[in-house]
Request: fold
Amino acid sequence: MHTQQTDYDIIIVGAGIVGAMVARFLSRYDLRILWVEKDADICTGATAANSAILHGGYDAVPGTLKAAMNVRGNAMWDQLAEELHFSIDRCGTYVVAVGEDERLALSELEARGKVNGVPVEIISGDTMRSREPKVTPETSGALYCPTGGVCDPWGATLAAGENAVSNGVTLFRRTTFEDFLWDPDDPGRIVGARTSQGDFRARWVINAAGLYADGVMHKAGVRPEFKITPRRGEYYVIDRNRFEMHSVLFPVPSKISKGILVTTTVHGNTIVGPNAEEIDDKEDTAVTAEGLREVWDGALKLVPDLAVRDAIAVFAGLRPGGNAPAPNPAVDYHKDFIVEIPTTSSRGALRGLINLGGIESPGLTAAPAIALRVIELLRDTGEPLREKRDWNPIRPARPVFRHLSHAEQAELVQHDPRYGRIICRCEYVTEGEIVAEIHAPIPADTYDAIKRRTWLGTGRCQGAFDMPRVTEILARELGCDPLDVSKKGTGSEFLTRRTKALEED
Reply:
């Protein structure tokens, strides 16, 4: 149980990209903020397993919150990357048409993009092939969006979260939201949250619970008809030493999905996927033979030279697809974002809740814009938002050994010899980097936490060589028994028992 402060101004539930951006932008103000996450680390849900695309916003239905938040959010990422020191690449996105029918379909997307204020243009098949030589020779043209690209969703979430914590936000991990606290004299006023780590009071609770946002709403008696249906998407990761893409290739989209894409990443790998399978289980991130076959077949339609032997990993992620109608009744769309302060519930008049729900694609791109909208909503209620004089928008960069020159590497090793010990040979990650992340503002205290921060274990060997060393380092730095070191939290420990006693000197 946490025994420190129990009274706050705002409680944020959920530590994906939306929760992290909300925490970071609100940390600018003189507010006591508690941020809670049920898992052992932040960025473990929908944000941890997606396509990492910065969407331009050409495909969102005009007049929806998705469209507005997508376009506004896209424009914010360059400044955020500069301030918080994470990677983005404005490499451009292409919707690749195959055949005459698909080429004609590009015009609808182009028109939608222009309504949304997104720079787009239709290019010829020859131009497409000149820009991305590995694209199918059967392409008849493409819709090009220069403001699209890719980012590091793990890095962005962690950087925003660290910046929030450095500016005074209190983060509790391994803390599950259970229910709201209510004013005994006013049954419609929320006065805090009950969690697995105790009760915490606050004037506002912000629901950024991702896949679980519908359950949080329903505990407040809000939107009983709203349901999040997890949509599972499966992916292949391609060895960057075997295959290289320069941009993001989409197929012409269907009614349920943007389709199976082939894209570069900020780390240099190529990923292909996802498919789109609606499921019931919000924890089911298993890959399937059928799903992977669907993904690969779809990818080959865009890039026929892909070879499955070059794949080094597969994974699946869940997208929190909702069924909320657009706020504008004139727009016939029923999978919109929810960004609101609800005023009525089954309890009557309601006060103290901000709902952020159904934040599926392009939620990653839209996250900073959603955070700004939260601030606007709070201001509209009369909430006093006084800026801190000492707020610091900068999250300092930490050394990434593989990105340094030989001279810079030598200087770093001279200063700290731990940077001279390579732990992950595939990705060239050093002991110094691992130790730095263990003692960072949001400490990395599991193997996966270190993996997300350093990219350790993501190469050809997929961690086979580094896991024992990382286990040893974690146990040493955390002062814990190696038996307690885990992959992603309680129940995922690497070691089960000692096989021999250690001799005492």
Remarks:
- The two ends are 39 Å apart (CA to CA).
- The longest strand covers residues 311-321.
